[in-house]
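$ ./design --mode recover --in tokens.txt
reading tokens...
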């Protein structure tokens, strides 16, 4: 599941890599992909929609799904786990927000969101995303991909407000250690120190070590799709 500013297409390479070993579904979120005509929705409704999707997946396949989320997709995935931990078997969460449980990251993203809110226009929304993923990753995207980000500027603004408002405390995260779901906290090798700190907080809370994706930053599906796919295969335990 993709994050803020990038539609389901960003997961194409990862999905292609994984499709040789398992059934893969890439989630559309409102405002993106086939749901581009829909307005962005708040986090609570996003949780309920994702929960419904996961239930449908389990009913169709007969097994609990593996959830892979990146950035905002990881934050939404974590929110679902906190409410409905029984819906998935394994969750790979690449750099979710943790709210005040990771204060340095929370402050940095909150400040960036405030700058975005104070600056009108599509360019400001694209600038927020460029800062989010890093300029090296942003410049490596094709002009078509960057134009796609500009096209969802209103969705970005709405989602940023929702995700910055996501709150979780250490007690909530530690409670996940007792539920029957394997949670993997991953972080990009080249991601900011605040992202590494947050990944460590989540990993420690659920009793695992954070997994570092070589060659990746925040936008792992674009930076290092093979590394992200290999991590999923490794934690799921399929050949």
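writing sequence...
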């Amino acid at each position: 599941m993709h994050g803020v500013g990038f539609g389901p297409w960003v997961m194409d390479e990862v999905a292609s890599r994984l499709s040789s070993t398992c059934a893969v579904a890439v989630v559309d979120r409102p405002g993106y992909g086939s749901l581009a005509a829909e307005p962005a929705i708040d986090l609570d409704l996003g949780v309920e929609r994702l929960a419904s999707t996961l239930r449908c997946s389990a009913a169709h396949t007969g097994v609990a799904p593996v959830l892979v989320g990146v950035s905002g997709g990881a934050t939404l995935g974590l929110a679902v786990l906190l409410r409905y931990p029984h819906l998935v078997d394994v969750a790979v969460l690449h750099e979710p927000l943790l709210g005040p449980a990771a204060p340095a990251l929370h402050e940095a993203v909150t400040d960036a969101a405030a700058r975005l809110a104070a600056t009108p226009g599509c360019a400001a929304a694209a600038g927020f995303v460029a800062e989010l993923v890093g300029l090296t990753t942003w410049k490596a995207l094709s002009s078509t991909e960057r134009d796609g980000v500009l096209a969802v500027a209103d969705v970005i603004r709405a989602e940023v407000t929702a995700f910055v408002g996501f709150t979780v405390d250490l007690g909530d995260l530690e409670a996940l250690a007792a539920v029957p779901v394997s949670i993997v906290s991953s972080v990009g090798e080249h991601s900011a120190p605040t992202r590494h700190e947050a990944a460590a907080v989540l990993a420690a809370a659920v009793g695992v070590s954070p997994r570092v994706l070589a060659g990746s930053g925040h936008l792992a599906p674009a930076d290092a799709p093979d590394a992200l796919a290999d991590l999923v295969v490794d934690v799921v335990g399929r050949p």
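exit 0
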